Amino acid sequence: MSKIDLTKALSSEQQLINREISWLQFNDRVLEESKNVKNPLFERVKFLSIAGTNLDEFFMVRVAGLYNQIKDDFDQLSADGLTSEEQLSRVVLKTKDLLIKQNDSFKQLLNELKKEKIYLKKIKDLDKKSIDFLRDYFNETVYPVITPTAIDPSHPFPFIANKGQAILMKLEKVKNKRNLNVIIVIPRALPKFIDIDGQSDQFITIEDLISYFSESIFPEHELVSFLPFKIIRDSDIEIDDEAEDLVRYFEKAIKKRRRGSIVKLEILKGSSNNLKDFLSKKLDVSDEHVYEVEGIVGIQDIDEICKKKSPHLRFKKFNPRPVERLEEFNHKFFSAIKSKDFVVHHPFETFDVVIQFLETAAKDEKVIAIKQTLYRTTPDSPIVKALIAAAENGKAVTAVVEIKARFDEEKNIELSRKLEKAGVQIVYGFAKYKTHAKASLVLRKEKGKTKTYVHLGTGNYHPINAKIYTDLSLFSSDPLIAKDVEKFFTFVTGYAKPSKLNKIILSPINSRLFLEKQIDNEISNSLKGKDAEIWAKMNSLVDPQIIKKFYEASCKGVKIKLSVRGVCCLRPGVKGLSENIEVKSIIGRFLEHSRIYCFANGSPMPSRQNLVYIGSADLMPRNLDRRVEILVPIENNTVHEQILDQIMVANFLDNSQSWHLDSLGNYHKGKPLLMKKAFSAHNYFMSYPSLSGRGKSIMKMKPEILRIIK
Fold it and tell me: Which H or E run includes 674?
């Protein structure tokens, strides 16, 4: 049997890793960072918090989707050949395994926090002075805002919104021993952890506080038992292509989301079985939706205890470097960009340059128009302020606000109204597609002609995320790229599909065809005996068609190296199918977010003849078929070398924060035998003064580098 025939012979499950299981594996890797003793203690606590938040969102969308498929008798198999029931069964088992690891991590971290004299305590173990303080805190801060509800025929069970936390109590009246069930929904305005002495070294939970002072709420009653719990609801919003008013549609959908069906009921392990049964019955939740955790309910809030000002408990402070090109031109943006394209590597080089680019455009008298996409940002973002200032200065400003950005819909509606009041023209893009591309366009009058400057990025215009996400910003005044970006904005605002693009690749128009063509070109070069290789970096690899093209290329001798941070459905290293493919995932201090696609193009990797593209698109069906995305070629020699010879090489060299995917679908930490010393891409990029200086440093290791990356 030939290698290519094996692709047809293997079952779907043998060829592909299930998407949901792959996501849970990703969250497992995040959770492992909470156990990584090389990370400072507070950072480990933060990783535990992130893992908890991630899991909630996974249930809100992906698990909820499986339940809906089962309810609707959806009979289509997943790409790896599983029914919805089979997927859900595996997800539940894997989630329960994750929660066991989460509990272990929580216990371990509490022990290590004690060594730093930081304690999570029970009120009953405190001295009188501390209890008196907490009594005052309860009476002044907590009691006025909670609404205790007795559950009886005249008091029905209250509604609890998505991500809501509450306490169910069983009380007994002292006089007649009559039982009373009570529920207290914990307002989100209250902290999960209460600092007992103001020194940030002793904490109790809000549940412990409320249950301890329950007799203050219900005089003449004693607390028999209590059950802390948390609810996760179906939170996905189905997009109606026929919606006449997207804003009004999403406002209604957001309200509906808060009342979605329950997909996860999290309770404290060891709680009263009677209360558990009572709660399940009142919420109409079956056992398969119930997940028991140890220690605390709502682990995502655990980082609230990380308040102590002890530098050794945090990552060493890192200040992003200034951008050398702008320093050379004294921060004259348009002169710097006009001289030649340049790239900025966030967060190692400051994201402030993106903000300053727009602030400069807002003030510049020669600038006549600005067009900007906004997917995720903050209402008080300096970018938003710059757009408002530009509009107030009489410039034509257009903002494409994507209100369909999941979990940011409400913020984006608020943002759009704020911009509109200032005179910015707001466009919401397509009802059918999400506009996920990251683009800025500035039109400037120069010597009687209009000159166009563009910024294209791999990350969102979010000043907070930019400090922890690794992303790339390309600044260019290339006339052909500029013309393409103008067509992109016309496509989004006016639905005018561009008939021809000069350089950029645009989803959903031609991204899939472009990528398949490049893979086919590598296959052709391999068959001709030329260098044939693909290097790619992305957040997720899910698309079955692209994966099968990678398999085809592997079977034809193309070497493929992939850095996939999150979900990866491709199964590498299978003899006769994917033995020429390697997959790694970097999980560390920064969230790997940049998307980079590199093709040998008949020349050795890395070299100037290789093709390099960056952009906003991952390799998922949604990014190729249902989103508006941009990929842009990197043609300037310096920028090409910075991305390929430095960023990509450093990612493949990393053996400190890397996980390697095997043919069975399991991840393994590091490959220590490949290099004599540990190498962290994140530490490397934080250590060197500039991209231009970095190239010489990393390529001094060239013989060893080539041995490793080949």
Answer: none
Angle at 654 between CA 648 and CA 657, to 5 degrees: 125
Residues in the chain: 710
Rounded alpha-carbon distances, angstroms, from residue 10 to 2, 83, 334, 546: 13, 18, 55, 17
| Distance in angstroms (rounded) separating the CA atoms of residues 354 and 381 | 12
Of 384, 409, 410, the closest CA to residue 397 belongs to 384
Contact 249, 213 (CB under 8 A): no
- Whether 411 and 342 share a structural domain: yes
- How high is the pLDDT of residue 493? 92
Burial of 104 (0-12, 13-18, 19+ CB in 10 A): middle
In this prediction, residue 186 carries a pLDDT of 95
Q: What share of the chain is helix, strand, coil (3-state, %, to 5)?
A: 40, 20, 35
Classify residue 282 as left (phi > 0), alpha (psi -120 to 50) or beta: alpha
**Residue 318 in domain:** no
Q: Is residue 433 part of a domain?
A: yes
pLDDT category of residue 75 using cuts at 50, 70 and 90:
confident
Q: How far apart are CA 183 and CA 188, in angstroms?
A: 16
User: Is 462 known to be catalytic?
Assistant: no
**Tens-place pLDDT, residues 564-601:** 999 999 999 999 999 999 999 999 999 999 999 999 99
* Order of strands across the sheet that contains 202-205: 119-120, 202-205, 193-195
Mean pLDDT, range 231-253, rounded to an integer: 59
443, 452 Cβ separation under 8 angstroms: yes
Identify the band that residue 697 occupies on the pLDDT scale cut at 50, 70 and 90.
low
Residues 91 and 118 in one domain: no
Whole-Å CA distances, 649 to 82, 190, 693, 701? 37, 47, 15, 11
- The whole-number pLDDT of residue 243 equals 43
Residue 134 has pLDDT above 70, yes or no: yes
The one catalytic residue in 289, 345, 346, 436 is 436
CA 588/CA 658 separation, integer angstroms: 9
Q: Is residue 317 situated within a structural domain? A: no
